[in-house]
Write a structure and sequence with these properties.
The chain is α+β, with helices and mostly antiparallel strands. The chain is built from 11 helices and 37 strands. Helix 4 packs across helix 9.
Length: 613
């Protein structure tokens, strides 16, 4: 097999299509094609249930293409069924330590926290142990960013403190990939490229000029209808409804007693003919009018279009700008006008795409209708392009093997998510702080900041967005949380306010100092500070304060008092104190600054005949 030719395999519920495609300039040419139908119900709703039976049909397609082309095929491009994808909407929010400019790293951390929240929701959706570890995380789309509660287009470079993101994360069951790889391996092939069916189809169905529009792509297959909604150049969500073309075909078969293949032909052509002829399973020839068929399938067509419309609205919230149908079921007459009624779009905004609508693809695919050829062509085209390429690599995280699937270049963050490592633990959480009130004012003692976590890629420092290659080794060292705050009472009181004096009064030695109460309990400055406590303290700064503490009387009793009296019939006023305070026999002012080792005497003064004013 040459590097110029791509072998694309579309393994569908009813048929397997193989293409050999060559790129010529900017166009693609289909060199050979082969189609095979499953002989048993080896696949249901896009999932491989019998690997051996599916492999047998794939082998037929491979050998037919080898015979037609003379090329030995050893690699194939394939697509995983989009119907198996699970999308989870989730949000995350972080508060920065202070208002500042937002960096790329802040946004990366925010988005990864939201993805991990989506993983946790997926985990809770099933009670099986490690259920969510059976899923590949394959990508995400941001719905909205918010900065300080205001929606904003981009966070990077903005200034703020509170960041939030709403996003849609997409997961793919590992069993889908494992069974697909098993089939490919059992026929002697290697997977050269893998993508997702909605991505492959959109690659060729939606031209570059339309990528910015809000569109819904609906692939109506045999057993299911697969939906992908695009907006702003990316796929914002996927869904599957278990109603598709088979229900309509089976209704025709049941109503008119004809075999499935005949019913399928009638389904696809009754819109073009007034009367159709067929043969019943009893061998009788019958004529069926278009009106008879229309009435027979109307309930099933109503159910199908209603389910598809509801799915699109669930993803997009409002009708998209346009809807594009592909797949064999899209050929069902009356589909467009029925669907237009259900989703509130004019019929001209609803299209059905065929291979002939592709300007950049030449060549034919025999034995199948053109609406069914778009996905295999898309697989071939995406295999030749670098964007939207799914990548499989094996790495190790903390010496444990991890298999990664990514539809872009895998990063360290992808590996940590796959290994179920809480990326939030890269950020050190500060220790708990202490709060108290000191003489009515709030005081806070912060806990320690802690030590940030570390990421090493092949023994070198790495970031979350560092790209990975197969065989890489990632070491994740979680952050160490900071210690909780611890403090003594003296830590919240200014040093100058903690005093201790010796004061001699009337010959007796006394200790005078700062009086500290924690929650109304007298304690020393070296007592442990309790969180949420109320601290009140007083500082003796003057002789008056010191004496008040020793004598256990209010300091106002040592204040000067105003007295009034009448002298010669005239009212007079004087100011005097109730106590005489002396130092070395000399009277001192009680408002003098308190000093250590003062020797004082105090005596009460009597002032008879005077009345305090």
């Amino acid at each position: 097999m040459t590097e110029e030719i791509t072998f694309a395999l579309d393994i569908g519920t009813r048929t397997i299509i193989g293409l050999l495609v060559k790129k010529e300039g900017k166009k693609y040419k289909i060199i050979n094609s082969a189609v095979s139908e499953h002989q048993t119900r080896a696949m249901l709703d896009g999932q491989i249930h019998n690997v051996a039976d599916v492999a047998a049909e794939v082998k037929k397609v491979k050998e037919e293409l080898e015979a037609k082309s003379g090329i030995t095929l050893n690699k194939a491009a394939v697509a995983a069924a989009g119907r198996a994808l699970k999308t989870v909407s989730e949000s995350a929010e972080i508060d920065l330590e202070k208002s500042r400019y937002i960096k790329n790293g802040d946004v990366n951390r925010l988005e990864i926290l939201a993805i991990q929240a989506a993983q946790n929701r997926l985990k809770k959706s099933d009670k099986k142990e490690n259920f969510y570890l059976n899923y590949h995380f394959v990508g995400y789309t941001v719905s909205s960013y918010y900065l300080d509660n205001m929606e904003i287009g981009s966070l990077v470079g903005q200034r703020g403190k509170n960041l939030r993101v709403d996003l849609v994360a997409t997961f793919l069951p590992r069993v889908v990939i494992d069974s697909l790889l098993s089939v490919i391996s059992s026929v002697g092939l290697e997977v050269d490229h893998i993508t997702l069916e909605p991505i492959a189809a959109s690659q060729v169905v939606i031209p570059e000029s339309m990528r910015g529009f809000n569109l819904a792509l609906v692939d109506i297959g045999a057993g299911t209808s697969d939906i992908a909604v695009t907006k702003g150049g990316s796929i914002i969500g996927y869904d599957m409804v278990p109603t598709a073309g088979d229900e309509i075909t089976e209704k025709i078969s049941e109503k008119f007693l004809i075999d499935y293949n005949s019913a399928e032909k009638i389904k696809c052509s009754y819109g073009e003919n007034e009367i159709l002829k067929s043969r019943t399973i009893l061998g009788d020839e019958i004529e069926i009018t278009r009106e008879d068929i229309k009435k027979a399938v109307e309930p099933e067509l109503d159910d199908l279009t209603h389910a598809v419309a509801a799915s699109i609205l669930k993803i997009n919230k409002t009708p998209p700008q346009a809807v594009i149908f592909i797949g064999g079921g899209s050929l069902t007459p009356e589909l467009k006008n029925k669907f237009a009624e259900k989703i509130d779009l004019i019929e001209s905004r609803i299209g059905i795409r065929h291979k002939d609508d592709l300007d950049n693809v030449a060549g034919e695919i025999d034995n199948i209708n053109s609406a069914q050829t778009l996905t295999p062509i898309g697989i071939a085209v995406t295999a030749r392009e670098t964007k939207n390429r799914a990548v499989f690599i094996d790495v190790s995280v903390n010496n444990e093997a991890v298999n990664l699937l990514s539809i872009s270049k895998p990063t360290v963050a992808d590996a940590l998510l796959a290994a179920d490592i809480d990326i939030g633990k890269l950020t050190a959480s500060p220790g708990m702080g202490l709060t108290c009130t000191v003489n009515g004012k709030m005081k806070v003692i912060k806990g320690e900041l802690g030590q940030p976590g570390e990421l090493l890629l092949n023994d070198k420092k790495a970031e979350l967005d560092t790209e990975l290659s197969s065989g890489d080794n990632i070491i994740f060292e979680p952050a160490k949380p900071g210690k909780n705050a611890e403090a003594l009472i003296k830590d919240v009181i200014p040093e100058k306010d903690i005093v201790d004096y010796n004061l001699y009064l009337n010959g007796s030695k006394n200790r005078v100092g700062t009086k500290i109460y924690q929650n109304n309990k007298l304690l020393s400055p070296d007592s442990i500070l309790k969180d949420g406590s109320e601290i009140n303290y007083t500082v003796p700064r003057t002789i008056r304060d010191g004496l008040s503490q020793i004598l256990e009387i209010p300091s106002k009793k040592l204040d000067n008092k105003k007295f009034s009296f009448y002298f010669n019939g005239k009212k007079e006023k004087i100011t005097d104190s109730l106590y005489i305070i002396k130092e070395n026999g000399r009277e001192v002012n009680p408002d003098r600054k308190l000093e250590n080792n003062l020797y004082l005497e105090i005596e009460e003064k009597n002032t008879p005949g005077l009345t305090a004013a």
